[in-house]
Amino acid sequence: MNSIASILKKDEFTSEDIVKLLSISEPESLEELRIAAEKVLLKYRGPSVYFRGLVEFSNICTSDCYYCGIRKSNSQVKRYLISKEQIIDGALWCAQQGYGSIVLQSGERQDSAFTDFITDTVRTIKNVTRSENLPGGLGITLCVGEQTRQTYQKFFDAGAHRYLLRIETSDKELFSSIHPPAQTFDSRVKCLQTLKEIGFLVGTGVMIGLPGQTPEHLANDILFFKNIGVDMIGMGPFIVHEQTPFSIYKDEQEGQLESHFLNSLKMIAVTRMVLKDINIAATTALQALKHDGREMGLKFGANVVMPQLTPTEFKKQYMLYEGKPCIDENAEQCKGCLSRRIQSVGRSVAINLWGDRRAVHKV
Ligand code: SAH
C-alpha cells in the first residue's frame, strides 16, 4: 500500500499526515483523497447539500485588511447599505424557495446605529419567515466581523444562531502580515471563543495561497479548526484585488492560480477527513477561478452552497476580489443554475431544513 493510501485509512491524523495529504500532486493520489473525503461526508452527513441565501447587505467597512477590495481605504468603491425592507424581501423569497437559511454579510462596523439595524432585521426575519414548513423560521447566519460580547449576545437573543468569522490564517505572524496593527490575531480568537460561549454555531476559515503561506501553515489551520471545535468552515483561494496593497502580488499570482485552486480542494477534503461531521461551504471564490469550482468543492467534501441574494445593483460594489462570478445574475437565475450544478455531481438540495451538525436551543 502506498503511503497516501495508508494515511487515508486512519481515523485520527497527525500534523505530518496532514502535511503529506496537502502535498499530494499526482492525479491518482488526489483522486484517492477525493474518494476518501466523499466517503466520510456521505457517512457523517449524507448526500444533502444545504442552501444558505447570501445577502451582502453593506460594503461600508472600518477595517483595512491589506487583501480586501472593500477595505476602508479603497476610495474607488461606492459604499451602500441595503434597506431593511430589501433584506426582508430577500428573506421571504428564500423561505418561499425552501432555502432553510439566510446569511447576512457585510463590511465591519461597530457603531450602535449599525448593530441595532442588524438586531432589528434579524428579529423581523424570524417573525416573518415562521411557517408550517419552517416552524423555527429561517436559520440566520451572521458574518459581520469582530464585535463586543454584548453585541454578539444581542444578535443571538434576536434569533441569529450561527456566526461566521474567518481566522484568515492560524499563524500569528502571517496574520499580522496581512492586517494593519489595529487588527490582531488574539482579538479574532477571543471573538471566536466568545461566540461559542454565547451558544452560536461557529464557522471560521482561511484564505489559501496567501503570500508566504506554506503547507505547514495550512496543516496547522486544520488543527486550529479542530482545537477550537468549529461547526462550519468556509475557505477558498486568495485572489488579488487591484485596488489593494496586495496588488503587488498580481504578477506572482498569475502562475499560481492553478495550484491555489488545487490546494483549496485539498484543504476541503482534508478538513472533511479530520473534522468529519461539520458543515463545509463550497465558496464563490472557488468558482471565480474555475467555472465548475463549486461543483468540484462539493465533490471534495463540501456540503453547503450560498446562492446569491444580493440585489444585482449592489453586487458590483461588493468585490472582495477580482473576477467574482455571477455578478449580473438575479437570485432566480442563481438558484436554477446552482440546482443544476448540484445535480450534476449526483447530490440533492435539502428543502426547508437548517442542516446544522447539532441542534441549538432557540426560543
Ligand atoms: N467583514 C466580514 C465579512 C466580509 S469579508 C468579516 O470580517 O467577517 C468575507 C471574507 O472574504 C473574508 O473573511 C476573507 O476571507 C474573504 N476575502 C476578502 N478578500 C479576499 C480576497 N482578496 N481573496 C479571497 N478572499 C477574500
Question: What does this protein structure show overall?
Answer:
- There is one protein chain.
- This protein has 363 residues and is of the alpha/beta class.
- The chain is 45% helix and 12% strand.
- The chain contains 15 helices and 10 strands.
- The protein has helices spanning 3-8, 15-22, 27-44, 84-97, 112-129, 149-158, 172-178, 185-198, 215-228, 250-254, 257-275, 284-289, 293-299, 312-315, 331-344; strands spanning 48-58, 101-106, 139-143, 162-164, 201-204, 207-208, 232-237, 279-282, 304-305, 348-349.
- Strands 1, 2, 3, 4, 5, 6, 7, 8, 9 and 10 form a 10-stranded parallel beta sheet that branches.
- Strand 3 (139-143), helix 6 and strand 4 (162-164) form a beta-alpha-beta unit.
- Helix 3 (27-44) packs parallel to helix 11 (257-275) and helix 4 packs parallel to helix 5 (112-129).
- The longest helix has 19 residues, at 257-275.
- It is globular, with a radius of gyration of 19 Å.
- 47% of the residues are buried.
- The model has no long low-confidence stretch (mean pLDDT 95).
- It binds S-adenosyl-L-homocysteine.
- S-adenosyl-L-homocysteine (SAH) binds at residues 67-68, 105, 107-108, 143, 145, 165-166, 168, 207, 238-239, 241, 285, 320-321.
